[in-house]
Design goal:
alpha/beta; binds zinc ion; TIM Barrel; 8 helices; binds D-xylitol-5-phosphate; 223 residues; 8 strands
């Protein structure tokens, strides 16, 4: 039995109270959140603007949770390394944005971080399978990146199944992560398809008790 990982997205949290919002989902292993998902948006790669390195640096001092930084930005080849050097646990860049994602992943790992690759819902996985050995996480987007609270796109589960198969047959070691529209209604289908780590924004921070929402999602995601 694989213990699913839960990564609440602070995109749905109160940005004026980030330390408290991180504490609200923290807890002992297997109970609290595994990672805290941080959506960095630049208003160019996606039509929304959120936060950047200074906020991540402050957040690193405010929580012990590993930060899972999801960079929805142009020119990650130039900017991603700063997040790794600051101490982010995992730094994920979009394959649609990076010029040389494999070289970037190597640099992220050399700087002490895990390296993640993210693909948008319409981006096929096949052309990138050979490069996945350079990454620690594969973030499959199940909504168009840019906004929280959107509806889950079930078609992307085919990519999850492919990645799961490659991991289970020993061809890959990458951790399969899903992001967008994950809630009590969608988490089971994602788990069945083979997701290891579930990002959830509104389903966690929109709940009265975010800590309880994390536990509830993990229970439903057991496979
Ligand atoms: C969307 C972000 C997601 C977002 C998910 O571009 O990458 O991490 O916070 O929010 P929900 O869980 O509400 O779909
Ligand atoms: Zn995200």
């Amino acid at each position: 039995k694989i213990a699913p990982m839960i990564a609440p997205s602070i995109l749905a949290a109160d940005f004026a109270r980030l330390a408290d919002e991180a504490a609200a989902v923290a807890g002992p292993a297997g109970e609290g959140a595994d990672w805290l998902h941080v959506d960095v948006m630049d208003g160019h790669f996606v039509p929304n603007l959120t936060l950047g390195l200074p906020v991540v640096q402050s957040l690193l001092k405010a929580t012990d949770l590993p930060l899972d930084c999801h960079l929805m930005i142009e020119d990650p080849d130039r900017w991603a390394i700063g997040y790794a050097e600051a101490g982010a646990y995992n730094v994920t860049v979009h394959v649609e944005a990076a010029r040389d994602p494999v070289a970037l992943a190597k640099n992220l790992r050399a700087a002490g971080a895990k390296a993640g690759l993210s693909i948008k819902p319409g981006t096929p996985l096949e052309p990138h399978i050979e490069t996945l050995k350079h990454y620690d996480t594969l973030l499959v987007m199940s909504v168009e990146p840019g906004f929280g609270g959107q509806e889950f796109i079930p078609d992307v589960l085919e990519k999850v199944r492919t990645a799961r198969r490659l991991v289970d047959t020993g061809h890959l070691t990458v951790l399969v992560e899903i992001d967008g529209g994950i809630n009590a209604d969608t988490v089971e289908a994602a788990a069945e398809a083979g997701v290891d780590c579930f990002v959830a924004g509104s389903a966690v921070y929109g709940a009265d008790d975010p800590g309880r929402a994390v536990r509830a999602l993990r229970e439903r995601a057991r496979r």
